[in-house]
Write a structure and sequence with these properties.
Layout: H1 2-23, H2 26-31, H3 34-56, H4 67-81, H5 83-92, H6 97-121, E1 123-128, E2 140-143, E3 148-151, E4 154-157, E5 164-168
Antiparallel strand pairs: 1-2, 1-5, 2-3, 3-4
C-alpha cells in the first residue's frame, strides 16, 4: 500500500516534469522558472528515493546485532553497482517509472547477493517439535541474521512462540588437499 502511494507520488512529479519539458526548454526552466523547477527536482529526488528504498529493501530483515556487519556490505553493493546514477537518469532525463522500478529490483537482488555471505556465516538447523514426533520431519535451515527459516527457496519469519532448538553450522576451510 505504501509503495503504491510512493509510486503515484513519483509518477505525478515525473509527469509534471515531462509536461514542462514538452513546452519549455530545460534552460528556460532553470532560469525563468528557477524556483518551481528546482522545487520539482527536489520533490522528484525525495519521492524517487523513498520509492526505490521501499522496493529495494522490501522484506529485508536484519537483527540489530548484525547491522554493523550488514550495513557496510549493503552500502558497498549499492556504491559499486552505479545503479543510483542510472535511476537518477531515468527520473530526470527520461521520466521513466518502469525503468526506475526495474533498476530498483536489480538493486534489491544486488543487496540480497551482498548479504548472502553474511547469511551463510550464521546458518543453523531449525529443529521444531515436529522433527521429534512419530512422523519425524527433516530440520530446516535457520538464519540467525534475519530470524527466518528457509522454506521453498524463500526466507520465512519464524513463528513467534514456537518451541525449537537451534544448532549452529560451521564450515572449516582446509588448507591441505585431501588425498
Amino acid at each position: 500500500m505504501e509503495t503504491d502511494v510512493s509510486r503515484n507520488t513519483l509518477m505525478t512529479h515525473l509527469n509534471t516534469l515531462s509536461r514542462n519539458l514538452a513546452v519549455v526548454s530545460r534552460r528556460e526552466l532553470k532560469t525563468r522558472y528557477r524556483k518551481p523547477y528546482y522545487a520539482l527536482l527536489r520533490d522528484i529526488a525525495t519521492s524517487a528515493s523513498a520509492y526505490v528504498k521501499q522496493i529495494a529493501l522490501a522484506d529485508l530483515r536484519i537483527r540489530q546485532e548484525y547491522l554493523p556487519e550488514a550495513v557496510p556490505a549493503i552500502n558497498n553493493a549499492i556504491q559499486a553497482s552505479g545503479i543510483l546514477k542510472q535511476i537518477s537518469a531515468a527520473a530526470y532525463r527520461r521520466q521513466d517509472i518502469q525503468e526506475i522500478e526495474q533498476l530498483a529490483l536489480t538493486l534489491k537482488r544486488l543487496i540480497e547477493d551482498a548479504l548472502m555471505p553474511i547469511y551463510e556465516k550464521h546458518l543453523g538447523l531449525y529443529l521444531s517439535n515436529e522433527c521429534f514426533g512419530a512422523s519425524a520431519q527433516a530440520p530446516q535451515l535457520y538464519n540467525h541474521v534475519n530470524g527466518c527459516i528457509m522454506q521453498d527457496g524463500k526466507w520465512i519469519p519464524l513463528d513467534a512462540g514456537k518451541k525449537y532448538s537451534f544448532f549452529t553450522l560451521h564450515s572449516k576451510e582446509h588448507s591441505q588437499p585431501v588425498a
